[in-house]
Amino acid sequence: xxxxxxxxxxxxxxxxxxxxxxxxxxxxxxxxxxxxxxxxxxxxxxxxxxxxxxxxxxxxxxxxxxxxxxxxxxxxxxxxxxxxxxxxxxxxxxxxxxxxxxxxxxxxxxxxxxxxxxxxxxxxxxxxxxxxxxxxxxxxxxxxxxxxxxxxxxxxxxxxxxxxxxxxxxxxxxxxxxxxxxxxxxxxxxxxxxxxxxxxxxxxxxxxxxxxxxxxxxxxxxxxxxxxxxxxxxxxxxxxxxxxxxxxxxxxxxxxxxxxxxxxxxxxxxxxxxxxxxxxxxxxxxxxxxxxxxxxxxxxxxxxxxxxxxxxxxxxxxxxxxxxxxxxxxxxxxxxxxxxxxxxxxxxxxxxxxxxxxxxxxxxxxxxxxxxxxxxxxxxxxxxxxxxxxxxxxxxxxxxxxxxxxxxxxxxxxxxxxxxxxxxxxxxxxxxxxxxxxxxxxxxxxxxxxxxxxxxxxxxxxxxxxxxxxxxxxxxxxxx
Length: 480
Known about the structure:
This protein is of the alpha+beta class. It has two domains: 9-244, Chloramphenicol Acetyltransferase (2-Layer Sandwich), CATH 3.30.559.10; 259-479, Chloramphenicol acetyltransferase-like domain (Chloramphenicol Acetyltransferase, 2-Layer Sandwich). The protein contains eleven helices and 15 strands. It has helices spanning 36-39, 66-81, 125-129, 182-202, 267-282, 296-312, 354-359, 362-374, 378-390, 463-470, 473-479; strands spanning 9-16, 32-33, 47-54, 90-96, 101-107, 114-120, 158-164, 168-175, 259-265, 319-327, 345-353, 407-412, 430-433, 442-447, 455-461. Strands 1-6-7-8-3-13 form a six-stranded mixed β-sheet, with helices on one face. The longest helix is centred in the middle third of the chain and has 21 residues, at 182-202. The model has no long low-confidence stretch (mean pLDDT 92).
């Protein structure tokens, strides 16, 4: 039995600039400032998400040409950047002595472009999706694997890497997490796919530089002050030099080895878990709850929290934590639009002792998470902002999570319209992520390819914990 290919060969790379200039006159020169939610993550790595497609088969009537396809991708990307022009820019820092000021912002006047990479591999679609665990070659389908958000001063804020497989095409995006979260990244990808389709529809045999192609959801870049009583959009960080808050790269440190595996929760499995959690609450004598308040995502998150905590075999009196990365857009009053382009994310935590989590059922764990999210409202968001502004801090990056073996981290969303991004190739075979955030206890949520409320969960655990989870009856029954 031959081993699957493990290498990816770089073929070409270039920078792509916006095709047209639609930016308002004032936006051409005005900095785009970041919020506290974004500035805390200057040490964090770029976000990496991508889609695997089947490569069209050649026939005598309409042969597929990778060269033509790449040119169409580049042209439509340039047309898309017309609307998402800040992605072509770079970060900048303004330092003043009197009065003291250290401000990091996006500089629209420094706009070299988005990086576009083309690479090839002998791997097949089966090499990627058939193994039990995600093969390491997938990490090579993404660019900027070691970049942190602060590197956006010199590195592209977005890099698109197109990898041609023997029978497939992978389109992977690495994006600076200061400028975009998952909501904004998939908004961009959806708009790019929309323009790709419209470009081929309007100009099937040639690329036109004349027409501006409009999109159904223009992004919103305008920022509003988040602090009460303040009109300032920029935030002064309490530093005089980057070395005071940027971590050195831990290239020589020994990384924790984790296994990555996708578990598929069908729409029926998700509905069953949701019903079970809500039924347990309604049957509990301590509650009068009759309506279904536990969401599908909360029910799946709760079973992950319970089962992973169980197989970790922690002491009964130790604390276990489930961190949910939440989107602040709908929690603000007034709410921010889903088209708001940025990274307004925050982590909220459900906590319990191991004994409590194991002694009570799925409904109890799901209610813990539900209450954690429900209590994180506009007041809580603004209280956190006010507290951070009084004492700004840039979080340190953990490349291991090993000191936090009591922690389950749940990010991404099954509500993202990943499979609506087709780029003329049809529905993607699978969604995958890069090397970023592959930590013990990190769970990444995806929409199931079959739709209908199905959820795919990428689980990252150390090998011995993964092995025990795969044998846990409660976990197996939750998706089978």
